[in-house]
Design goal:
Layout lengths: L1 E3 L8 E7 L3 E8 L6 E4 L3 H14 L2 E8 L6 H19 L8 E8 L2 E8 L5 E5 L9 E2 L3 E2 L2 H13 L2 E8 L3 H20 L16
Parallel strand pairs: 4-5, 8-11
Antiparallel strand pairs: 1-2, 2-3, 3-5, 6-7, 7-11, 9-10
Helix pairs in contact: 1-4, 2-3
């Protein structure tokens, strides 16, 4: 595993490569971007979700991943989420001047998802509300519904953030997943944005 960042020449950027016997992943992000994405994980529906994450968080992201998808897409999906979490944590640096908290409720037709993010330095995920059986749906021929929670688990753990995600409504499995990714994106965007009224690190402890 190799990583670089933050890059002082381009504020709040980071890059990491992660290679195992199961996958090879490269992730590069710019937190102060415009939502430009270059995504190829070899898992089409996951590409769609990560592209939505970029677009609605305004994080520029390059993701190149390959792995043992002939066995299952699980390893490639998980390792990409791990790497994104690590890169996010690196790009955030000491988190001085950010809003820290973000919240968003996002609809997608009949689906509705609510996300709350705290860039706390303490990884924690609360995930609920998906309809019974959502975890068994195979979306796009590759992505199993259970991977949604697993992706958020990996991101929160490796980024050191707290995420509360609740599915408030939904019927179509695709919509249920996509609403969650978009809600997370919008909440994350708010949480990592600079707040001009914040001086230093937004914590009474002096560290996040």
């Amino acid at each position: 595993m190799t990583s670089t960042g933050p890059n002082p020449a381009a504020a709040r950027t980071a890059r990491m490569e992660r290679a195992t016997s199961e996958s090879s992943v490269l992730v590069e992000i710019n937190l102060d971007g415009t939502g430009v994405s270059d995504i190829d994980t070899s898992v089409p529906f996951y590409d769609h979700m990560l592209t939505a994450l970029c677009k609605h968080s305004l994080i520029d992201m390059t993701v190149k991943a390959s792995g043992d998808t002939h066995i299952d897409v699980h390893h490639t999906v998980e390792d990409t989420a791990i790497t994104f979490g690590e890169v996010l944590r690196t790009a955030l640096g000491n988190k001085a001047g950010i809003r820290r908290f973000g919240e968003a409720t996002v609809p997608l037709d009949e689906a509705l998802a609510h996300a709350v993010v705290d860039v706390s330095g303490r990884p924690y995920l609360v995930h609920g509300g998906e309809p019974a059986g959502q975890e068994y749906h195979l979306i796009g021929g590759h992505f199993t519904g259970s991977l949604t929670r697993h992706v958020f688990e990996a991101i929160t753990l490796h980024a050191g953030i707290c995420l509360h995600m609740n599915v408030m409504a939904g019927r179509d499995p695709h919509h249920i997943v996509e609403a969650q990714f978009k809600a997370f994106a919008r909440a994350l965007r708010a949480a990592i944005e600079p707040d001009p009224r914040v001086e230093g690190i937004p914590s009474t402890k002096g560290a996040l």
